[in-house]
Amino acid sequence: MKKIFIITGEPSGDKLASTVISKLKMQNPDIEYLSVGGAHIKKLGIQSIFDLKEITYLGFTSVLFNIFKIRNKINFTVDQIIKFNPDILFSVDSPDFTLRVAERVKKINNKIKTIHYVAPQVWVWRKNRVKKIKKFIDHMLLLFKFEKKYFDEENISNTFVGHPLIEKNDNVKTVLNDLISKDKKIISIFPGSRKSETNVLLPILLDFIKLMNKKEDIYSFVLHATDENKEFIINYVKKTDLYNIDVVSDENIKSQILSNSIFAVSKSGTISLQISSSNVPSIIIYKLNFINFMIFKLLVNVKFANIINIINDKEVIPELLQKECNADEIYKTVIYFLKKPELIKKQLSDCSKTLEGIKSKTSSSNEAATILSNYLTT
């Protein structure tokens, strides 16, 4: 029986990996799996060698403070992969963890095929990293067309598969009447998948909700959580006197709530693609501590944080970062947009055109699964 080891480093990567593996399981049910995964991978019946929470760190200083823990996890993961002896090591996103593991595995056992999903953002920083990747990655699966040139230049085998978060989902519909009041307008809130992100953004977002409630009692706010951080968010919200907040983690319900939202406030990340794909207007927020932000500014090569804005080289979706990431600014920006339907129409139009340019011809997850399947037969 063929074997695949799946390695992720955070909930978003876990979700992406699960979309591919679920399709691969349909194509070829006779594959043995082991992983470093989270809730989504576990739902597919695949064991994880440790809890994903143990390696989810945000920012440069957080990594530095946990460097010995991370090093131990890398060592343990490499050992487990070598013992498992898979035909393919399928690494997804989180390059500072997954690619370090892949590099070491390849040195020990060159026969293991290494396929990485979600290319490191070499167009943002560390372009010289591509030359190093060539030594230990057999195939790179790309989310965006514009990434291809960076890997073609170094003759690294790669395929543009597109982003699964912008695919239309045909999940079974769930009745939302019991969750959301019909007389309220829904605003979706995305505070981040990592607890370290949520710790920073959640208090700001709750203060923003308080300001919205003072203006008008016509909104219902839904916090989109993960299985990993849902309880943390619920317990935090319970400490407030806010009455019009729901916290959901079920992917099907989250997708439907988003589609029924009039606006979204989201942390910077790939979730913004799903929001845009759902034809929902939004703004982006993010906040790092001062040291992390200064290091970030020194290393990055782009003007924007959001991928839609980066592709367009202009601010299609407003970004409230660092000092601007506060309850007052979020409130002012959201209210301004809600009063200006022409701005919402323009944003949705620009986002739609952008998404058309980065969609794969078929299904992203199907294409990625097919490539994995092909490597199993070679």
How would you explain this protein's 3D organization?
The protein has 378 residues and is of the alpha/beta class. The protein has 2 domains: 2-162 and 360-376, Glycogen Phosphorylase B (Rossmann fold), CATH 3.40.50; 185-358, 3-Layer(aba) Sandwich (Rossmann fold), CATH 3.40.50.2000. 46% of the residues lie in helices and 16% in strands. The strands form 2 sheets. It has a 6-stranded parallel β-sheet with strand order 2-1-3-4-5-6, with helices on both faces. Helix 7 (148-152) links the parallel strand 5 (139-142) and strand 6. Helix 4 crosses helix 5. The longest helix is centred in the middle third of the chain and has 21 residues, at 195-215.
What is this entry, summarized?
The chain has helices at residues 11-27, 39-43, 60-65, 67-84, 95-108, 129-133, 148-152, 195-215, 230-238, 251-259, 271-277, 290-299, 307-312, 327-338, 341-358, 364-376; strands at residues 2-7, 31-36, 88-92, 113-117, 139-142, 158-160, 185-190, 219-224, 245-248, 261-267, 282-286, 319-321.
